[in-house]
Structure formats: structure tokens, C-alpha cells
Design brief:
Subcellular location: Cell membrane; Cell projection, Phagocytic cup; Cytoplasm; Early endosome
Radius of gyration: 28 Å
Main location: membrane
Strand order of the largest sheet: 2-1-3-4-5
CATH class of the domain at 81-235: Alpha Beta
Structural class: alpha/beta
Pfam family, one: TIR_2
Low-confidence stretches: 1-75
CATH superfamily of the domain at 81-235: Toll/interleukin-1 receptor homology (TIR) domain
Order of helices and strands: HHEHEHEHEHEHH
Largest sheet: 5 strands, parallel
Shape: globular
Protein name: TIR domain-containing adapter molecule 2
Mean pLDDT: 75
Distance between the termini: 26 Å
CATH topology of the domain at 81-235: Rossmann fold
Organism: Acinonyx jubatus
Length: about 240
């Protein structure tokens, strides 16, 4: 995901980890003269003090600098998610509960809820990444869902995406949770045409196993990888 970088600073070419009392150009294992040895100590301490001022700075500043310098250059590999849960802002806790239920009790992982998408990015970009970076889009149908204009936009956009993209057909899953579910009679007509998961139903486990099939996930994952590869080649060209 939703499926769903950090800056790097230039590293000081002078090593910060030279041991005290040693110099790169002086072999301290040979001590024929005490005077020469003491002189070597003085030189190495002075050299380290000049080039490794970070060792004498406050610990907070030093830790911040080291953390920045040690950031790995490689980008983290993105993962194609099994599902993303779209939910109202007031339903974050309920969304997390359903996420844990699907992942821990049914082994459908990895999954994400929309509240976990990266901060500081446009909602539309996060929505696109969430829907197209996962195999299934779960709409958490609660009383709060229809009160949120953004949620209405989410479910209409998700439905249109599933219609316009063949491999996304039947990928939108309405789910009525145990807590504060949206009554069927108040569910928008567009969603009433889709069989919703009913958590309170005795057939809920069977429904989950029938919908979230590994074979379907593999097909969508393959298409997702091919699409990303094509876009990367186009950006390089």
C-alpha cells in the first residue's frame, strides 16, 4: 500500500570512531621511547579533537547527526497489500479492530487502514495509492460513514475504479462491523447492489474465506508489479 524518503546529509570524511590515544599514522604497539610515545598521544588527541568535534557536542545533537548520517541509501521495497479499510475519521479504532481480526484470525495480511497512510500528502494521492496498492478495498459501513463527505467520495471513487479496471472487478467489499453498523435500509443504492460482509452473521467466516482468495491476490499483485515497472521505465526514458 496501499499497497500502501528521508533526506540524506553528507558524511564527514574524517572518521569519528578513532580510539582515544591512537593515531592512524602512529603504531602505539611499539614504545622504544616514552617521550615519543607521549608526543604521539598528544598529536592523536589533538587531531581527533579537531576533526571529531561531534564527539564533544551535546548528546542530543550528536544523536540527531548520527541518525541522519546512517540513513540507508536504498529505498524500502513497496509491498502490495491484501486489503485497505476505508473508514470515517471517528471509526479509526473500529477499523483497527477489523484489521486485526482479518490479519490475526483469518491470516489475511498485510492490510492497512486509511488512517495509517502517510501524513503530509494529498488525500487524493493517498486514496489512489491505497486502492491501487491493495487487492481489496473494504468500506467500513457504520453510522459515521455517511456523515463524512470524504467517505462518500471514497466509496464512489472505489466503485468507479473497480468498474473501469478489469482486474479490480469485485474488489470493493462493504463490511458492516459489530459496533455501530449502518442499517441496510440506509445504505446507498450503489452499495446495496454488492453483497456486504456482515460481521454479526454466523456465515461471516465462510464469506471471508470465499472472498479473500490467494489466487485473486496473486493475479492483482502481478498486474501491479507490471504496471509499476512500465511506469519506472517511462520515467527513465
Amino acid at each position: 500500500m496501499l499497497i500502501m524518503g528521508v533526506g540524506k546529509s553528507k558524511i564527514d570524511p574524517c572518521p569519528l570512531s578513532l580510539p582515544w590515544g591512537k593515531s592512524p599514522s602512529v603504531d602505539m604497539s611499539q614504545r622504544p621511547h616514552e617521550a615519543d610515545s607521549k608526543k604521539s598521544d598528544d598529536i592523536s588527541l589533538r587531531d581527533i579533537a579537531e576533526h571529531s568535534h561531534g564527539a564533544l557536542t551535546p548528546s542530543g545533537e550528536r544523536e540527531g547527526t548520527e541518525a541522519t548520517e546512517e540513513v540507508p541509501e536504498e529505498d524500502e521495497e513497496e509491498v502490495f497489500l491484501k486489503f485497505v479499510i476505508l473508514h470515517a475519521e471517528d471509526d479509526t479504532d473500529e477499523a483497527l479492530r477489523v484489521q486485526n481480526l482479518l490479519q490475526n484470525d483469518f491470516g489475511i495480511k498485510p492490510g492497512i487502514i486509511f488512517a495509517e497512510m502517510p501524513c503530509g500528502r494529498q488525500h487524493l494521492q493517498n486514496l489512489d495509492d491505497a486502492v491501487n496498492g491493495s487487492a481489496w478495498t473494504i468500506l467500513l459501513l457504520t453510522e459515521n460513514f455517511l456523515r463524512d463527505t470524504w467517505c462518500k467520495f471514497q466509496f464512489y471513487t472505489s466503485l468507479m475504479n473497480s468498474v473501469n479496471r478489469q482486474h479490480k472487478y469485485n474488489s470493493v467489499i462493504p463490511l458492516r462491523p459489530l459496533n455501530n453498523p449502518l442499517p441496510r435500509e440506509r445504505t446507498p443504492f450503489a452499495l446495496r447492489t454488492i453483497n456486504a460482509l456482515e460481521e454479526e452473521s454466523r456465515g461471516f467466516p465462510t464469506q471471508v474465506e470465499r472472498i479473500f482468495q490467494e489466487s485473486v491476490y496473486k493475479i492483482q499483485q502481478s498486474i501491479w508489479k507490471e504496471t509499476r515497472t512500465t511506469l519506472q521505465r517511462q520515467s527513465i526514458a
